[in-house]
Amino acid sequence: MNKPNSATVPATSGRDIKTIVNASLPRRHAAERRFRWYGLIAISLGLAFVVLMFANIIGKGYSAFWQTYVQVPISFDAAVLDPQGNRDAKAIEGADYGALVRAGLRAVFPNVQGRGELRTLYALVSSDAPQELRRTVMANPALIGATQEVWLLASATVDTFVKGNIDRTLDETERPIKDNQVAWIDKLAAAGKVEQRFNTLLFGSGDSREPEQAGIRGALMGSFYTLLVTFLLSFPIGVATAVYLEEFAPKNRWTDLIEVNINNLAAVPSIVFGLLGLAVFINFFGLPRSAPLVGGLVLSLMTLPVIIIAGRAALTSVPPSIREAALGMGASKLQMVGHHVLPLALPGMLTGSIIGMARALGESAPLLMIGMVAFIVDVPRGFMDPATVLPVQIYLWADLPERAFVERTSAAIMVLLGFMILMNGLAIVLRKRFERRW
Amino acid sequence: MLSYLLLTLVLLSIGGYYLGRNRAFAVANGHIRNLHSLPSFYGSYTALWCGLPALIVFAVWATLQPGVIIDLVVAGLPPELRELPPDRLNLVINDLKNLVSGNIVSSTPNPAILEAANRYRNLQTIGNASLWVVVMALAIAGIAYGWRTISPTLRARNRVEQVVNLFLIVSSTIAIFTTVGIVLSVLFESILFFGKIPITEFLFGLQWSPQTAIRADQVGSSGAFGAVPLFTGTLLISGIAMLVAVPVGLMSALFLSEYATPKFRATAKPALEVLAGIPTVVYGFFAALTVAPVIRDLGTALGLQVASESALAAGLVMGIMIIPFVSSLSDDVINAVPQSMRDGSYALGATKSETIRRVLLPAALPGIVGSILLAVSRAIGETMIVVMAAGLSANLTANPLAAVTTVTVQIVTLLTGDQEFDSPKTLAAFALGLVLFTVTLILNIIALHVVRKYREQYE
Amino acid sequence: MNTSTIAIETKAALDGALNAAAGVRKESSVEVTDYSNRQTVGRITVDNPKMVCRGVNVYYGEKHALKNVGLDIGANEVIAFIGPSGCGKSTFLRCLNRMNDTIATCRVTGQIKLDADDIYDKSIDVVQLRARVGMVFQKPNPFPKSIYENVAYGPRIHGMVNNKAELDELVYASLERAGLLKEVEKRLDEPGTSLSGGQQQRLCIARAIAVNPEVILMDEPCSALDPIATAKIEELIDELRENYTIVIVTHSMQQAARVSQRTAYFHLGDLIEVGDTDQIFTNPRHKLTEDYITGRFG
Ligand SMILES: Nc1ncnc2c1ncn2[C@@H]1O[C@H](COP(=O)(O)OP(=O)(O)O)[C@@H](O)[C@H]1O
Ligand SMILES: [Mg+2]
Fold first, then answer.
1. pLDDT of amino acid C205
2. Which residue has the higher pLDDT, A168 or A356?
3. Cα–chain-centroid distance for residue C152?
4. B245 and B104 belong to one structural domain
5. Whose Cα sits closest to atom 3 in ligand 1?
6. With contacts defined as CB-CB under 8 Å, which chain B residues touch A399?
7. Domains with residue ranges and CATH for chain C
8. Which residue of A7, A411, B174, C224 pairs with A61 in a disulfide if CB–CB is 3.0 to 4.6 A?
9. Ligand 1 test: best mutation among C90, C137, C267, most atoms within 8 Å of CB?
10. Which of B138, B154, B170 is where one domain is finished?
11. How far out from the chain centre does Cα B109 lie?
12. Last residue of a domain, one of B130, B154, B178
């Protein structure tokens, strides 16, 4: 059964493998531990950045959800508001409400004298306070002649101070709030006339030069319109492309070219899409600058590759047996796709699209190119109105030095991240819910 | 207004669908088997006849209308305005448009322009009204035509499928058109630019100061468009980013795929990928307001001269952003190395780290290089972080503590704000865009090719 | 050879004695089999054992893949494991150098000794164990490195050589012993993957013996090779027996007959019969073994 052993080759090493390996073990195990540590340190660094960034932003931004108000007795003087005494709405609207505010403040601090000092006193409340009063009176003209304690929006400096973000021990010249303002605020606070309320303006108003009046509503609506356009364009086209390439397209150089193209488009820097939008949509087609329509067009071109790639993955995960079954029953190819393949692939496609939308929501660079970076106070009401979007609003605010804007920028980031988490969560839920194992 | 028209069109099409379907039932005398196609196809057939031609006319009309109206209005302007040079005329037209849309206009408008604005508004009303009429007429005519042509022998399914097929094919070409559009738009403007500034000066010049060229009649107006400082700045910041991202990303991927328990991996991997989902503007904010001051203070404490917009701050934060990019790509690549390679090494008595360093990494090297190239391309094209955290002055330096500027920063600064479109300044942005597009495209093509070849090797 | 001392003992009797000797935990929930006569037939012990396995059970999660296997592997013998696929041959083989450690779900109980060392003992380092018990896999898996580097890999990581000259000598000697030197001498810098399948497998063998292990495990080393390459490997195995103990899993009974002195037959996770190769193939004592070698299943 066995040939005789040739037994000509001697063993390579005279030394015993066991002792050789044993000798090397301490060094090698130390190296192993070191390497493991590097890995652990790397991943901890990555995770630490996540935590650090979130903590940093939440720490800076959470206070923006509250806003300081001061209570001032306002006498709605008929002589100021309605000198004619005929309750003419136009006259009431045009009245000098600033005078009411100033009078109210003087009433609280009757000892304040001199133009300069008075100006610092008036600066306690926001420049929006008169408008606020106007709205109140217009809504309720019966107030005219009465005197009432009214909560007025404090100025951003006061707000920042009350939130403890200005060091009161600093010298007056080194902080934005004056000594006498500090004294007044302390006095008001002691009388219970300073209050923090939920910051409705942040969500209710558009951009403003005054931090205390600035809100993200305009940016949110701009983002909404832009994303709506993006979705309406990129989803059908993306799905159609995925279906065509996966189910109908012949395998030839043309479809190869399309494929290579899509993969490359997915990696083109976003700012280049902005250049495309500027050159084609604005300069060539003459569409208006700053419009959500143009923003949506640009973002849909960027989102398309994402949707197409996700769509094709979803289509390939539908087993061929289903296609064969449908075709075997005499369905046309289009019916096979429409009735059987597409419904099964749709959840996967939707998941990919939502992730693509979340990315589009966070995108700002290309929108800078097409003018969505303007200072826009009005909340947009359509696809053609000048608008900005949330990330660009963040970019704009991040440039402003006031502490109150830093706070609002962080808050806007929190809102943006909130939406992104929501969208990604939705995608995960969708995937979990419809995930199929074939 | 126009969105209501679209909505009406959709409603009409839906109506057309039901009309067509009912008509099919009628012509079939109640026996569906008499029909060539299912009744719903006759419905779709009618709906398509209703919606499609109307939609096409609508799209063409809506695109052309503004231009035509402008031409008409300009033709009606008094001669002294009409004869203005093109760029001044454009300003007038802009004023006009602003007037029409009710925006504030810089100067008090003269009567001629006010009148023109009125005419503009009238024309617009007339145009929109005719659009409504034409589109509605087409839609209804379409329904009528579809309804009349329905007969049992009409191959409705084939017709509908032809249209759907056409839609699929057209959709799939959009990607091509996008690329063509990108290439044409940056190329076209770049050629204009290189007509004013020699391409050699742009590519090899060491001076970049486009800000001096605001007005053509200014003294020393030509500006300097040597882009080398931008290229080096971009490389410096990207280099710093890669120095952060590659070791951290690669080691994370290795740890997750080779050391971590499945449970740890299941939580840490998505947590790390959160970094990839955070919008870049957030990183920019973090870089500018948190990291840059910290680095400056640290540097000052060490007695170093640190610019407040140092390349280091932008690069570091960009590196953080790219970590998940490197780690998830490397993870794929590492997992593509067959288990038999690991087994072969373990069976010889190698430790894990020996296996990783001596077998896994060499085996995965092409794939990892590909991933790093993709990451570099991402870093070069990244905009928001550098716009917010890097400087504007084009310094030709390799000092990470100095402020440098990048290609993307310059594109943004040149194109935001109001510039005439064909000044060298704005055109320079497109030339920079061309460089950016070309470089990233080449990097991507090489990287995708390398990665694909790598995958095929282990398929 | 142990042909002279075949004894048939009942598994129960043997288990009792051996488990007591080895101090093995007895699994209470051993599956009930429907083969009333399923028990290890033949003598599992040898006079001069290199490895001693007792009461080895392997679980993949819930799956009980290897059931209470006891077997000796003699020094400088070639022992073949045969059996239908999925019966646990590879599983058992991988227990012998603890390659099962790399599978997260895998759990091994029982005792396996290499000379005097219990290889599952805490004090034993797998690195050292695997250097002593080398392995060759079913599919040739040369590293994506040069031929030279493939062979040099083991000596390098274990620090077996002090300089390049020693390493050269070791690499050449290993290639020589794997019968590959003549074919590759001129192209040592080419990647290992550029070789033919049979050459790759011999490269893997050279790689394994470069470490100078005591035992070499081979898991169907020829199943991916053509007959000529197979013949070369079989010849090589025969030569290697001089210096190494070899355990080979094979699905080819002819191969088992050609290269091995003893053969063990596995079935559904049980070791059914073990004995001299001649005897197993000419005169199997268990019905299942007989069915298998006469080609009734597997
Ligand atoms: N990694 C694993 N995970 C789970 N089950 C496994 C694994 N490897 C092998 N098995 C199972 O263990 C049993 C024995 O497998 P194996 O030892 O590979 O059989 P063979 O005798 O063919 O080499 C089989 O039923 C197989 O399904
Ligand atoms: Mg096997």
1. 93
2. A356
3. 23
4. no
5. C60
6. 388
7. 11-293 (3.40.50.300)
8. A411
9. C90
10. B154
11. 37
12. B154
Rounded distance, CA B116 to CA A42, Å? 66
Number of domains in chain A: 2
> Are A279 and A236 in the same domain?
yes
Shortest alpha-carbon distance between residue C224 and chain A (Å): 24
**pLDDT, position B87:** 67
| Residue-number span of the structural domain to which B346 is assigned | 224-457
Is A1 in contact with C157 (Cβ distance < 8 A)? Answer: no
DSSP secondary structure of C6-64: -----HHHHHHHHHHHHTPPPPTTPPPPS-TT-S-BS----SSEEEEEEEEEEEETTEE
Which of C85, C87, C106 has most ligand 1 atoms within 8 Å of its beta carbon, as the pocket-test mutant?
C87
Q: Is residue A55 part of a domain?
A: no
So what's the pLDDT on residue C10? 38
What residues of chain B lie within 8 A of the CB of A392, using their CB?
281
Same domain, B236 and B97: no
Contacts A–B by Cβ distance under 8 A:
259
Q: Are residues A284 and A151 in the same domain?
A: no
Q: d(Cα C55, Cα C24) in Å, to the nearest integer?
A: 7
Predicted confidence band at C7 (pLDDT cuts at 50, 70, 90)?
Answer: very low
| Interchain contact, A18 vs C278, CB within 8 Å | no
B340/C141 Cβ within 8 A: yes
Return the residue in B337, B342, B348 with the most chain C beta carbons within 10 A, the one to mutate for interface testing.
Answer: B348
Task: For ligand 1, atom 12, name the residue with the nearest CA.
Answer: C65
Q: Do the beta carbons of residue A388 and residue A376 sit within 8 Å?
A: yes
Output the pLDDT for position A293. Answer: 92
Does residue A23 lie within any of the structural domains? Answer: no
On whether residue B219 sits in a domain, the answer given is no
Q: What is the DSSP letter of C146?
A: B
Query: Which of B67, B174, B280 faces A304 most closely, judged by CB atoms?
Result: B174
Contacts of C126 (CB under 8 A, 6+ apart): B349, C98, C101
Q: Is the pLDDT of residue C50 over 80?
A: yes
pLDDT mean across residues, chain C: 85
Considering the domain architecture, whether residues A187 and A238 belong to the same structural domain is answered as: no
CATH number, domain of A236, equals: 1.10.3720.10
Q: Can you give the three-state secondary structure of B129-182, one letter per residue?
A: HHHHHHHHHHHHHHHHHHHHHCCCCCCHHHHHHHHHHHHHHHHHHHHHHHHHHH
User: Among the atoms of ligand 1, which is closest to the Cα of residue C89?
Assistant: 21
pLDDT at A335: 86
Is residue A165 domain-shared with residue A290, that is, in the same domain? no
Instruction: Give the atom of ligand 1 at the shortest distance from the alpha carbon of C61.
Output: 4
Question: Is residue B194 in a domain?
Answer: no
Mean pLDDT of C161-184: 92
Number of domains making up chain B: 2
Query: Which residues of chain A neighbour B157 with C-beta distances below 8 Å?
Result: 332
Residue A76: the pLDDT is: 87
Domain identity same for A239 and A376: yes
Q: Are residues A270 and A394 in the same domain?
A: yes
Residues of chain B with pLDDT under 50: 213-214, 219-220
**Tokens of residue A429, six digits:** 């839920």
Contact (CB<8Å) B344/C142: yes
Q: State the ipTM, two decimals.
A: 0.90
The answer to whether residue B95 sits within a structural domain is: yes
Please state, in angstroms and rounded to a whole number, the distance separating the CA atoms of residues B309 and B402: 8
The residue from A197, A228, A246 where one domain ends is A197
B247: domain CATH number? 1.10.3720.10
In the prediction, which pLDDT does A384 show? 83
Residue B291 in any domain: the answer is: yes
Confidence category of residue C150, pLDDT binned at 50, 70, 90? very high
The set of chains that have 3 or more CB pairs under 8 A with A is B, C
Instruction: Give the span between the Cα atoms of C174 and C147, in whole angstroms.
Output: 12
Count CB atoms within 10 A of the CB of residue A27: 10
Q: Which of residues 390-409 of A touch B (CB under 8 A)?
A: 391-392, 394-395, 398-399, 406, 409
Q: Is there a single domain that holds both residue A191 and residue A325?
A: no
- The pLDDT tens digits for B449-458 are 888 888 887 7
Residue A15 confidence (pLDDT): 56
Of A50, A368, A369, nearest to B275 by CB-CB distance is A50
- With CA atoms as reference, report the closest residue to B190 among B444, B437, B447, B442: B437
What pLDDT score does A233 carry?
94
Tokens of C203: 């490269």
A237 and A341 part of one domain: yes
Q: Which protein residues are within 6 Å of ligand 1, measured from CB?
A: C 60, 63, 65, 83, 85-91, 103, 105
**What pLDDT score does A68 carry?**
92
- The alpha carbon of residue C191 is apart from the nearest alpha carbon of chain A, in Å, by 24
Whether the pLDDT of residue A255 is over 90: the answer is no
Domain that holds residue A87: 67-197
